TrEMBL record:
Organism expressing this protein natively: Kitasatospora griseola
Lineage: Bacteria, Bacillati, Actinomycetota, Actinomycetes, Kitasatosporales
Gene3D superfamilies: YwqG-like
Protein name: DUF1963 domain-containing protein
Family matches, as SUPFAM superfamilies: Hypothetical protein YwqG
Length: 341
């Protein structure tokens, strides 16, 4: 089912014409539970990978705040919790019985960290035909994103980008290696999702605007009211409801929030990086309700399982933040850059 972002509560560029030249297109991916195949765009799905091409591995040092677990441990833990959340329960009945609690504790106990290379985990596969405005190197029609599902020096999973021509892939790798170690809580393991791309318009967050304009937007937000007469979210109204869309997306603006933007320049050529791909810990929350797609505004029928409607991929960055991947505008061969906001 397609997903439709409601019109913004206010045409902010009409009220503040200085914003109009800063408009950018972003493509909200709207990942939802599915069973995507290798010839489809997806989050957490299988990759179109040549059988004769080496699968990438991570050889960087890892920060193990808690013992790592296996990918199978994460999958089994989620399946157990999903089944129990969905089953009918009597008032006061525990979610898990003693045997299930023992199994869950065992799955979450972890194991000693491996010291060798850690195979990467598929995160997203984006066919350019599905993503309006997404371009790649000459001849490439597919972007694949993988990462090492462990914390590194920057407290982020280490991402790896692959651009390829899907038409030149012969025999396929059907059984890619799984990571030996996954972060203890499984926060970096995306569940398989089909995508429903939708182009929207974004504007910079206040931290990327001239201070005078940001101050005027803050003052306007303090006085703004929703059409139904309820008070809006004060000075943050522009930031949360009118500037940057939440959720997994391609392009647009960076969601600067809890720290000031810093210069991000390609080490090879000095060009300013541009946003490519955003991984979010949820598609909406209490501060971004106007971005909830029309098709998701009614509560789902029946009980809600372990997989929240606002976070079908079940990925969490930090304490509920986003990970953005930036690329150099002069060459796709130059290194990308990752930031957390």
């Amino acid at each position: 089912m397609a997903r439709t972002t409601p019109p913004r509560p206010v045409d902010i560029a009409a009220l503040f014409p200085e914003l109009a030249p800063l408009a950018r297109q972003a493509v909200r991916l709207h990942p939802r539970p599915g069973e995507p195949g290798v010839h489809e765009s997806s989050v957490g799905g299988p990759l179109l990978w040549p059988a004769d091409e080496q699968w990438p591995v991570c050889t960087q040092p890892h920060d193990h705040w808690s013992p790592p677990v296996s990918l199978d441990d994460v999958r089994r833990s989620r399946a157990l919790l999903e089944a129990q959340w969905l089953r009918p329960r009597k008032a006061g009945e525990n979610l898990l019985d003693p045997a299930q609690r023992e199994l869950l504790d065992r799955l979450r106990a972890g194991h000693p960290a491996h010291t060798g290379p850690n195979p990467l985990l598929p995160v997203a596969q984006l066919y350019l035909r599905d993503i309006p405005g997404l371009t790649g190197p000459e001849g490439a029609d597919l972007l694949q994103v993988l990462w090492c599902p462990l914390d590194h020096d920057d407290a982020l999973p280490a991402a790896h980008l692959v651009w390829r021509d899907s038409r030149g892939v012969g025999a396929l790798l059907t059984d890619p290696p799984a990571p030996l170690d996954v972060d203890h809580y499984g926060h970096y393991v995306p569940e398989p999702c089909a995508l429903h791309p939708e182009a929207v318009t974004e504007y910079p967050t206040p931290l990327e605007l001239p201070k005078e304009l940001a101050d005027r937007l803050h003052a306007w937000g303090e006085a703004a009211r929703h059409p139904e007469g309820d008070r809006g979210p004060g000075g943050a109204y522009y930031q949360y409801e009118l500037s940057v869309a939440p959720g997994w997306k391609v392009g647009g603006w960076g969601p600067w929030s809890f720290c000031d933007p810093w210069p991000m320049e390609c080490p090879d050529c000095g060009a300013a990086y541009r946003p490519l791909f955003t991984v979010d810990s949820g598609e909406w929350d209490g501060g971004s309700g106007s971005w909830i797609p029309l098709e998701d505004r009614q509560p789902p029928p029946g009980p809600v399982g372990h997989r929240r409607p606002s976070d079908p991929p079940m990925v969490q960055i930090g304490r509920g933040y986003t990970l953005q991947l930036y690329v150099c505008p002069t060459s796709f061969d130059h290194p990308h850059y990752a930031a957390m906001q």
